[in-house]
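Sanity check

After download, print the first record. It should look like this:
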Amino acid sequence: MSVSKIRHTVELLVVNLSLLWAAGAHAGLPQMEAPSRGEGGSIIETVQNYAFDGFSLIALIISGAAFCGVAYHAYGTFAEVQSNKKTWGQFGLTCLVGVVLLVVTIWLLTKATGIL
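Expected structure tokens:
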């Protein structure tokens, strides 16, 4: 038997043993959780429920980003008040508009996820 045939046989043996070992590793993985609104009676309902969870997560990320944006702008206005570039009235107006923006954003996102 030539060296190349022995090498080829060993390579096939290693690949087959690796595949068998990997197949056994699958048994330890956790099962996928059901969506928050349940699995539903059909595959379409289950996919809709997973989509609802996905859109809810996206809405939460958008709300968090809006909150960070309002906080950043309010902090910048506060810094300008401290350096006498703006007044406290402008800072209060910035905070008021920011709160209204957050309330409207969260309300609209809640309505949008409710449509699903």
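If your output differs, re-run the checksum step. Summary of this record's structure: The mean pLDDT is 87.
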